[in-house]
Amino acid sequence: MKKILYAMFFCVLLLFFFIPKEVYAEDYSTYESMIFENKEVELLSQWSYYDNLSEKEYVNLKKAKMFGWNIHYRFKEEPFTFVAETIYRIENSGLDDIVHTFKYEETTEQTIQKNVSGSLQLSGSKTTEKKFKFGLETELEFEYKDTLKTKSTESDSIKVTVAPGCTLEIKIKGEGKLTQGYARKYFCFVHVKEGGFEYIVVTTEYYEISMYQNGE
After folding, report:
1. Which residues does residue 205 pair with via DSSP β-bridges, in sequence order?
2. How far apart (Å, rounded) are the C-alpha atoms in residues 188 and 181?
């Protein structure tokens, strides 16, 4: 009877480990656009990690170990450019110039954003840095922690003139690098967590001001 109870408990425990979790996404999931130099790169939300593993990669990933993680990188430090959002738009449909002083605060900081799928999870909140759970952070952080620089902020203002028949737009744009892969965690030779992971390091962020004729 005890053996049956132990077996039932073990099955329930495994079921808990294998319950699929929602995909957690950071701010970059709301970017207006992200363009990668490598056209084969896709965001984690766009692919299934099983579909993209070769037979050899999958065999290596599922090699059982006593404790710890098996990790396979799909892409490492792939450069991209992005448009985060359009923060200001002035359309001049009148006959006179529109003059506006735009005040801004520019921050120089390399920030990191993370995403997971499958049964992997992130800890943290909107106001704190998110970290990979279950010890995965320790396995991955050495790849990026030395690239993050000290934050510095500079405030300024600029006067802009929008001529009749023109539209002015101010966008937040930037550059970054993406790293992405698969991870599987083992406990007593049984894999208990698995899924895709992704993090991006935003290396540059700036304002872009553009003006064009209405209707273009």
Report:
1. 174
2. 23
Distance of alpha carbon 162 from alpha carbon 207, whole angstroms: 17
Report helix, strand or coil for 202.
strand
Single-letter amino acid code for the residue at 132: F
Residue with the two structure tokens 């300024």: 156
Average pLDDT score over the chain: 77
Q: What is the average per-residue pLDDT within 80-84?
A: 94
How far is Cα 9 from Cα 189, in angstroms, rounded to an integer? 18
Candidates 211, 195, 181, 176; CA nearest to 80 is 176
Cβ–Cβ < 8 Å for 72, 182: yes
In 10 A of CB 122, how many CB atoms? 19
Q: What is the pTM of this model?
A: 0.72
DSSP 86-98: EEEEEE--SSS-E
Q: What's phi and psi for 56, nearest 5 deg?
A: -65, -45
| Extended beta strands in 9-151, E state | 33-36, 67-91, 98-108, 111-116, 122-123, 131-132
Quote the distance between the C-alpha of residue 55 and its chain's center. 27
